[in-house]
Amino acid sequence: MRNKVYGLTRRDFIKLGGGLLAAAASSAMLSKAILKPVQVVQAAGVIPGAPSPARQPGAARASAQVEAPSLHFVGTDGWIYMPPDATVPPYHPDNMAPPPFTTYIFGFRDLTSISANGNLVNAQKMKAQYTAPLFWLEQENDYTLKLGNLGLQIRPDLIDAHTLHFHGFRNAIPIFDGEPHSSVGVPIQRELVYFYRPHDPGTYMYHCHFEETEHVHMGMIGPCYVTPIQNYGANGMPATRLGGNTDPGVPRGYVYNDGDGSTAYEREFVMLLSEIWAESHWCDSHIQLPEWSDYAPEFYLLNGRVWPQTLLPNGRGTHPLTGDLIPPVGHPELQYQPLSALVTCNAGDRVLLRLINLGYEEQTMRLSGPMMRVVGKDATLLRGLDGADLTYQTNAVSIGPGESLDAIFVAPEHSGSGEYDRYLLANRDYHRLNNGGHPGYGGQMTEVRVYPGGTLPPQTEPNT
C-alpha cells in the first residue's frame, strides 16, 4: 500500500488549541483523501509551437496533442542578496547565509530548458529565485505549466505544499486556480500540470496560495501577462512585431485589443514591487515563528532588487550543464535575482511599464520628467461601456497590494549632452528609499535612460 502523509504541519499544532486539534486532524485528512494529486486528471491541452501570425479571431484551433508542458516550474527555498550594511541586527544579514548572500527565501524556478534531465531538476533544490520567473501567454492560445515541489532544504520540518495562483485570472477552472480551498496543493516530490487558455489580455501576477501570508512574503511571487490577439492584425490594426511583422518600424505590441492603436508600444518593462521584513526571513531560517502583526519591512524592492542593484544587468540565463542560474557579469551576489529594473529606450519610443504590487503595503511610484498615460488597471482596458476614454495622464501612480497598472510614456527628445538622459522612477515615500535604515539612497528606485533616436535596436525581450 502507498504510504500516506496527511497535511498536519507544525503550524497546525502551534495555531490550534488542544480542543480543536482533533477537528483539525479530521479536516486535514479528509481534504487530502478527497483531493489526492495522483487522482487529478492532468489536462491534455494544445501547445503552439511558436507565436504565429495565423492566430486570428475565430481561426481554427490546432489539434496537436501536448507532448510536454509549455513551462516547468518548481518550488523550493534559497538565498538572495540585500545590502549587508543595513542596520537591522540580529536579523540581517542572516548569520546562516553563505557568502555573498544575506537573506533566506522561498521561491520558484523556471526549469523548462532542463526539464528532460531529472538529475539537473532535482539539483535545483535550494536555488530559488526572487522574483519568480517572468512569463507571458498569448490570448486564446493553450498552455500548460508543470509545477513541481522540491521541498525546503533549510526547513525539512515544513512539509508545505505549493500552488501557482494566477492572480486576477478571470473564470479560472477551480482545479487550475491554485487557490487551495477549491484546488489542490503540490506535495513534496510531486508534480501537477496546470492548464491555461487566457481570454483577457493585460498584466497579471502569480503567487503560491498555500500558507499565503508566509509564502508570498518569503518570495513565491512573480510577474506575468497576456498579450492581445490584436498583435496579429485583428480589429483592423496592422500586425505588430510580436504578431510576426518583421518591419522594425511597427510597434512591438499592443497592451489591449483597443481597436485604435492607443495602447501600442515599442518597449516594455515589468516592475514588480515587493517588500522584505528581515525578521520574518530570519525566523524561517532559524525555526522561529514571526508575529505578523508586527510587520515592519526594511527593504522595498523592484524586481527583487533594491537601489543601486536595480540598475545592474539581467542574469544570463540557465547553464545548460548544471541547470543553475548564471549571474550578471561581475555580480555573483545577484545570481538568484536575475531581473533588472533598468529602463532603456530611444527618444520618441512609446514605453510600457507593467507595474505590479505583490507586497503588503500600498506604494506610489513617481516618474520624474515624462508624463505617463495609465491605459489599464488589473488587466482591464480603461474604457467605459459606452466607449468613453477613461485613461489619464499622471507622473505618479498608486498601486495597492494585489493590483497592477499599465502605463505608457513617450520618451522625451535627447538633450544632446552625454550618452543618454537620465530620469528617476522611484517610490514617492522617501522613507522607502533606503536599505534597512542605512544612510543614502536605496529601495524602490531605478532609472529611465533615454538615448538619441535610433541608438538602441528594436527590443526583442521585455526588460532588455
Unreliable runs: 1-67
SSE order? HHEEHEEEEEHEEEEHEEEEEEEEEE
The gyration radius over C-alpha positions equals: 22 Å
Structural class: mainly beta
Largest sheet: 6 strands, mixed
Number of strands: 21
Mean pLDDT: 87
* Percent in helix: under 10%
* Physical arrangement of strands within the biggest beta sheet: 12-11-14-19-16-17
Number of helices: 5
What is the overall silhouette?
A: globular
Indicate the proportion of strand residues: 25-35%
Descriptive account of the structure:
The N terminus is likely disordered. This protein has five helices and 21 strands. The N and C termini lie far apart (52 Å). It has a six-stranded mixed β-sheet. Strands 13-21-20-15-18 form a five-stranded mixed β-sheet, with no helix packed on it. A four-stranded mixed β-sheet has the order 2-1-4-6. It is mainly beta. Helices cover 9% and strands 26% of the residues. The protein is globular, with a radius of gyration of 22 Å.
